[in-house]
């Protein structure tokens, strides 16, 4: 009898019962099935609306919407996702902006097309030029702007793209304090400008995914010749280098590294100078807080999964501007920060992000949007 009981206890195979997911995870799975479809019938495109809510002293409350359509131009497993996006925002001060943009990859990633148009009727702060612009100099000015760009590149070798680009920018109806810093700084294009330029773009891109890479790198070198025969009122040369590296650590945790440089020579309109501060790099600094002929920035970001669809990031970096390239090696401004991530479309590795960046002298800013900063 004892033998029978012992044999029954250890001699029978273990029966593994499936672990039932929690109510929260089941609800999330249900939501993702609505967004993505099921495994037998996955969606071929995703339309993702996202609210724009912000507050700035110069605009007061800003409300708007960002609508992104993610799709593929081929059903093969190689072609990367494309997107079309429309951002519309309106401020409490009756200011308006609209920005449609698109990036497409044709079948087999043979061609990559990037295009953007933006109209802005907003206000912006100005502190003067240079890395030593004093915070107390802050002054408000208003402007209207049209801005458009187009990049078309062909994959000539595996991961290597070569192409051309065109850029057009018009600034007009500029208003500032009479006799103030903005008016007395004798800025190039300070009363308005029209700039038109064309150039080349070359980039190497072997990232395993474009929205949330685990491995790979992208290095892009591009230039623009802004010339009068293209309709430009000012003649100057621009070259931009953007290099990004992604290192897979463990599970879905990634170390991302970026270096950026913007060099300009000639008669450069003030809003086309090199700047630091944006939702992409030098997070925490007002866009244009420091501006000069040239700009440089670098950053590293650790992206870590916390639980299920929730993740977080911590980042740190630095950057500066300079009148001549050699000044980019000194006076570097620091920035650090952290952020939260929530998976929006897991199949395409699309996240909703919220980042809080900090700079020198207590400067800080909060950014909310779709996809990673870089």
Give a description of the structure:
β4 and β5 form a beta hairpin. The N and C termini lie far apart (about 70 Å). The protein is globular and about 70 Å long. It contains 3 helices and 18 strands. Mean pLDDT is about 90; it is low at about 1-10. The longest helix has 14 residues, at about 25-35. It has one domain (about 45-370): Porin, CATH 2.40.160.50. The chain is mainly β and about 375 residues long. It has helices at about 1-10, 25-35, 180-185; strands at about 45-55, 60-70, 80-90, 95-105, 110-125, 140-155, 160-175, 195-205, 215-225, 235-250, 255-265, 275, 290, 295-305, 310-320, 335-345, 350-360, 365-370. Strands 1-2-3-4-5-6-7-8-9-10-11-14-15-16-17-18 form a 16-stranded antiparallel β-sheet. Strands 12-13 form a two-stranded antiparallel ribbon.
Précis, in short:
Helix content is 7%, strand content 56%.
Mind sketching the topology for me?
Elements: H1 2-11, H2 23-36, E1 45-56, E2 60-71, E3 82-91, E4 96-105, E5 111-126, E6 139-157, E7 160-176, H3 181-184, E8 193-205, E9 216-226, E10 236-250, E11 253-266, E12 274-276, E13 290-292, E14 294-307, E15 310-322, E16 333-345, E17 350-358, E18 364-370
Antiparallel strand pairs: 1-2, 2-3, 3-4, 4-5, 5-6, 6-7, 7-8, 8-9, 9-10, 10-11, 11-14, 12-13, 14-15, 15-16, 16-17, 17-18
Work out the helix count.
3
**So what's the overall shape?**
globular
Rg result: 25 Å
N- and C-termini, Cα separation: 69 Å
The biggest beta sheet is recorded as: 16 strands, antiparallel
What letter string, H or E per element, gives the SSE order? HHEEEEEEEHEEEEEEEEEEE
CATH top level label? Mainly Beta
Average of pLDDT: 90
Domain unit count = 1
At the fold tier of CATH, the topology name is: Porin
Instruction: Work out the strand percent.
Output: over 45%
- By CATH, the architecture is named Beta Barrel
Fraction of helical residues: under 10%
Alpha-beta content class: mainly beta
CATH homologous superfamily designation: membrane protein fhac: a member of the omp85/tpsb transporter family
Number-wise, the strands total 18
